[in-house]
Task: structure prediction
Amino acid sequence: METVTINTPKQSLNNVTIGEGVKIFDFVNAYGCTIGDGSKVGAFVEIQKGVTIGRNCKISSHTFICEGVHIADRVFVGHGVMFTNDLFPRATRPDGQPQTADDWQLVETHIEEGVSIGSNATIICGITIGAHAMIGAGAVVTKDIPPYGVAIGNPARVIKTINPE
Result:
């Protein structure tokens, strides 16, 4: 498996703004997004337009990051994490015609600095995961998680708070 390593200041490839020292593994589908300095993106990841990924993040393989997701610096995203951006997705309008971009409302999600998201978690749109929070593997996050909170389960619930020190 090959990787693309960007060692020069800010480059653009496929309308993606790529920071210095970024590593992108094979089979990544990224378009119209921004990936910050020193971040790593694993194989089989999709990053859609308008996504921002901060510096020194690790996005593990098989993850889907859709339009409207904003990830701050030093965030870990485990394998197979799924983000959403529509609270009421439909394939068609009430008249049976296929939906277009005008038929739905983008709902943004914010992942703050230092968050860790376990493998196979699902992040429902419209929430904020606070700085340094931890999301357990397989969790389904449906509401805001406070800074330093540890959340597990479906739906995810905060079970404790990590000592910031």
